[in-house]
Amino acid sequence: xxxxxxxxxxxxxxxxxxxxxxxxxxxxxxxxxxxxxxxxxxxxxxxxxxxxxxxxxxxxxxxxxxxxxxxxxxxxxxxxxxxxxxxxxxxxxxxxxxxxxxxxxxxxxxxxxxxxxxxxxxxxxxxxxxxxxxxxxxxxxxxxxxxxxxxxxxxxxxxxxxxxxxxxxxxxxx
Length: 174
Prior knowledge:
single chain; elongated
């Protein structure tokens, strides 16, 4: 009787718990979005699932929505606009990468920022929030070191009414 109980309940429960710990620690983790810096892509207070291992095999790409550590003791979520070697310039309320204006259908307000060119250093990325008038991003905090990137936001999973995949595969600018 005890052996049957262990084989049917205890062992599967232990295996399931270990699987959850492994997945949560190494593959995927939840992240709560605070504020409106990524509006209208994210409305704030959503929970997104972050792929924790994708950047162990490749570097962030244009359009990826990444979560990264900051010196403010909290993580930020922003969109990748530039990668190492890119020249990023904000001029006349538009963003230029390597001299070409970006097509950014996900933003609703013009981009305001200093009219200077930034060259993204090696092993760093340039990130901007989608809500350009209300975002603390590379215009203020500078470029982000790849070692500070936690992972890529893959999808919104809560609230259920906002359930969606976060990708920019249909953005012509990338």
